[in-house]
Design brief:
This protein is mainly alpha-helical. It has 11 helices and no strands. The chain is elongated, with a radius of gyration of 19 Å.
Length: about 220
């Protein structure tokens, strides 16, 4: 297979590979910030992370993981017990239903194991493409672009894509990189979006990309 030609950046921006290099230097230990030791734990943590912070999820998962070490244990759980544990993460009734649905699908269709293929993962209730990709990057050592709110925002600010549709944005951004780099891109963009290039008030004066970002000083 011939090598991928160099990406053509939007006028006034650095090559996307330069952005990734600078982000990697800024976040050399980038990882998924949800605490987990196995695929089931990370999958459940990702499901719980919707509309809340990783810190809140990490606050409840030690008790959750100890009480339910297997998919079968989750599937057999008393919803009231799950609701008590999940209370601090918000939307705990809805998330209790999500946990039970995920666990039931794993038991009934995958022998209680978390599948490694994207198509299998997205067939599970409450697991979308973003969640599947994050699991693959964070636990299976794979490379994929997980388009969360931070990745979407930064892609627009970097001039890589203005697509509102997540699927189209993923395709456009992924085309700028080698497939093997997409996992690192995901992790570093998420961290940068959380810590520096925030939605309301990006800290452009403290940003390692200030000299190469077309939105530096003007991002909104």
């Amino acid at each position: 297979m011939p090598p991928r030609p160099p990406a053509t950046p939007v006028t006034g921006t650095a090559p996307p590979t330069t952005v990734l290099r600078l982000l990697t230097e800024a976040y050399p230990d980038a990882r998924v910030e949800l605490d987990a030791t196995n695929p089931l734990e990370l999958l459940m943590a990702i499901v719980l992370s919707a509309q809340t912070t990783d810190e809140r999820v990490n606050g409840v998962t030690p008790e959750l993981f100890a009480a339910y070490p297997t998919a079968a244990a989750y599937a057999a759980a008393d919803p009231a017990d799950l609701e008590r544990i999940l209370g601090p993460v918000g939307f705990y009734r809805q998330k209790t239903k999500a946990v039970l649905a995920v666990a039931t699908a794993l038991v009934e269709r995958f022998d209680g194991e978390v599948p490694t293929a994207v198509d299998d993962l997205v067939s599970i209730p409450w697991v979308g493409r973003k969640s599947a990709h994050l699991l693959i990057v964070g636990m299976f050592g794979g490379s994929a672009l997980a388009v969360d709110t931070h990745v979407k925002r930064l892609a627009g600010r970097f001039g890589w894509s203005s697509q509102a549709d997540v699927g189209k944005l993923e395709t456009e951004v992924a085309a700028l990189f080698e497939p093997a780099d997409l996992g690192q891109l995901t992790l570093t963009m998420i961290l940068h979006g959380r810590r520096v290039c925030t939605a309301r008030k990006p800290a452009c004066g403290q940003c390692v990309l200030a000299d190469v970002c077309p939105s530096a000083g003007v991002a909104a």
